[in-house]
Amino acid sequence: MVQLQSHAGEALAGPHIAWYVYVLRSCLALVVLGACAWGAMALTYRCPGPGFVRYGVVALWVLLGIAALLALWRVRAGASLKGWPLAFTFAMILLLGWWQTIRPSNDREWAADVAEMLDSRQDGTHVTLHNVRNFAWRSETDFTPRWETREYDLDKLVSADLVLSYWMGPAIAHTLVSFGFSDGRRVVFSIEIRKKRGQKFSAIGGFFKDFEATLVAADERDILRVRSNVRGETVYLYRLNIPPAQLRRVFVAYLERAAELRREPAWYNTLTSNCTTIVFEIARLIAPGLPLDYRLLLSGYFAEYAFDQGGLTPGFTYAELQARGNFVARALAAGDAPDFSAQIRQGVPGDDPRVTP
Predict the structure, then answer these.
(1) Is residue 353 part of a domain?
(2) Which residues cross the membrane (predicted)?
(3) Domain containing 223: what range?
């Protein structure tokens, strides 16, 4: 009787052990697969040396990962993981160690449009900005570079506009903020990738330390017009519903971020440190209770998120604000006119006093 019960217990335990081993193998396989994919991309973008060396290293890495995966599925229950899985683990430790040695820098051969970094000086309410970009763009490769020094009075700061420029479908947009002063001055702040000379933008490369970050201060006829008139992007402008007392805090927060990047170079990250996340971080300084939302990652929907939080001009539906905020046709008509900023704001709620709910 006892012997029969023992055999029955072993029979029941067998399937449970087999299931446990299957789940464990599956989880380990997913970890190896993910590590193999991440390592291959990291090596593709950052492995030093000529192309044939880089891709040779990537091929060896992928083969090592495949060998580790095959070995995981060949081990029996109770056997220790030896051989290829351990070799892959050791290689992964070395890869992570090397990855930590790759540090951002402000000392490279930069592309012309990000060659200079914003430098600010504040004396009470008087702010001096050095290296404000004011390029004359004729095409993406034909332009006249101009870096200027401009002065602003924070007591005259009266408005801020959110600008979204769409270049890759409805879910992805570049986010900029333009500040307006009662004397007619305007300046746009934008977190941008700092491309090296001859380098092209890659959203995937932005995950793998391929670009440093820089904060650009620019004239609207430069940084907005190059998107609407030169690159052919679809650009929207929304007046932000920020109380005057808090505008200065937002403006100064941008200056502080620029100063941080001058002191300590940082990587641009497509997901966690980009043009939209800085807007959210600064907004949270004013309203700490702002909720996290998927639209912070899918930046093309960030204006809708701002609307839901009461951050855009009240009295209008989001559809109305979006339709009126598309200024591409007005920008094309304005060209390089001195009143470009006024023309693109015609009909925009909050910016055009003639437009009321």
Answers:
(1) no
(2) 20-43, 55-75, 81-99
(3) 119-345
Is residue 52 domain-shared with residue 153, that is, in the same domain? no
The reported pLDDT for the residue numbered 5 is 45
The pTM score is 0.87
Say whether both 41 and 133 belong to one domain: no
pLDDT tens digits, 325-337 = 999 999 999 999 9
- Per run of 10 residues, the mean pLDDT along the chain (length 357 residues) is 44 60 80 94 93 93 91 60 81 96 96 97 97 97 97 97 93 94 97 94 89 97 98 97 90 96 94 83 78 87 94 96 98 96 97 91
Report yes or no on 109 lying in a domain: no
Domain boundary among 101, 128, 152: 101
Please indicate, yes or no, whether residues 93 and 128 belong to a single structural domain of this protein.
no
Domain count, the chain: 2
Residue 3: the pLDDT is 46
CA-nearest of 208, 210, 173, 171 to 193 is: 210
The answer to the question of residue 278 being in a domain is: yes
